[in-house]
Amino acid sequence: MNFQKIIVPVAGVAVIVLAYRFYGWAGVAAAATALVMWLLLHFTRMMQVLKRAANRPIGYVDSAVMLNAKLRSGMTLLHVVAMTRALGQLQSVKDQQPEVFRWTDGSDSHVTCTFMGGKLTRHELFRPGATDSPRIEGAAPPAP
User: Fold this and answer.
1) Which of 17, 45, 66, 102 gets the most CB atoms within 10 Å of its CB?
2) pTM to 2 decimals?
3) Does pLDDT of 140 surpass 80?
4) How many whole angstroms separate alpha carbon 138 and alpha carbon 12?
5) Number of independent structural domains in the chain
6) How confident is the model at residue 142 (pLDDT cuts 50, 70, 90)?
7) Residue 125 placed within a domain
8) Contact partners, residue 72, CB within 8 Å, separation at least 6
């Protein structure tokens, strides 16, 4: 279960209750204003990312190798779309978990990302010209 869906609203209510307790109705007004501002900032960021992605082909990225290097487990789908500036090409069944998206570059290299609940769990790079190791797993630890 995703506790963030529960904790964030409870924290918002707690902030408003504490603001009322310490500062009265003026505190409630200030806390509510701050919470609305926080929501608007997140909404604006999401709209900006989607607006940039709308102007690019679905599933295209400038460099699949560079994308693979930047990906980390736990990243959100919105963060990955912001990095690629393009929506990924859906490889899995629509509205089913896990969601699998693919981004391909001009050299037919592609990165396949698996998202569970909107968070990146696994990513894999495929390079068609590499003969010694055609698949590079994204879960491998970084080299020292």
Assistant:
1) 102
2) 0.76
3) no
4) 36
5) 2
6) low
7) yes
8) 120
